[in-house]
Write a structure and sequence with these properties.
five-stranded mixed beta sheet; Bit1; alpha+beta; homodimer
Chain lengths: 116, 116
């Protein structure tokens, strides 16, 4: 069985605090999960059987947008923009969630990023 | 319409780094979301229409377990234990996700906690 993972990329050039980073990562995780359930339910089932592996990476805005443009037509992915009610300007990109999907499909896009 | 929110409580007495905290929070968010979709789909729909509000709080182990015991029979909630592959002992409680659920149902349980 292919290795399945969900990748959460948190934007690192905004200096978000820990609570803000968790909230934005959670938005990305839930929305990408919901998309994957609709588009690739078998992969989501396999991911659950494998223990729901999550990888949390960091990237600046340019890298996030480049990955999103490459991933959006191939993989379930959710670009998160902050509502701007608290710390950030409305519409600020904060995170990107990809999958659950096959590691072999995600890794070519995200392999150069570092762990958060 | 009632105000609906998802509350993510991250354990604060483990000194998890930002990436670890995001990963554990994401586990809590996805699992509690999945439970809520099965148990209270109308509330989840309302939550989405309201913008998917998430609140990220912090608590020590004792508070997390007390809240979990009070919440588990009334609300969709997911207690997260780390697999222990990296930084923590296997089975270590790291986070608790509650809802999406009505704020009026969650707040009596979590109202004393501080934001992460």
């Amino acid at each position: 069985m292919d290795e399945i993972e969900q990748v959460i990329i948190v934007r690192c050039d905004l200096n978000m605090g820990k609570g803000k980073a968790v909230a934005q990562g959670c938005h990305a995780a839930v929305r990408a999960y919901e998309m994957a359930k609709q588009e690739t339910p078998r992969i989501v089932s396999d991911w659950k059987m494998q223990g729901e592996k999550k990888i949390v990476l960091k990237a600046d805005l340019e890298a996030i947008m480049r990955i999103y443009e490459n991933a959006r037509n191939e993989l379930p992915c959710a670009l998160i923009r902050d509502a701007g009610l608290t710390q950030l300007e409305p519409g600020t990109v904060t995170a990107l969630g990809i999958g659950p999907a096959r590691r072999s499909d995600i890794h070519p896009l995200t392999g150069s990023l570092k762990l958060l």
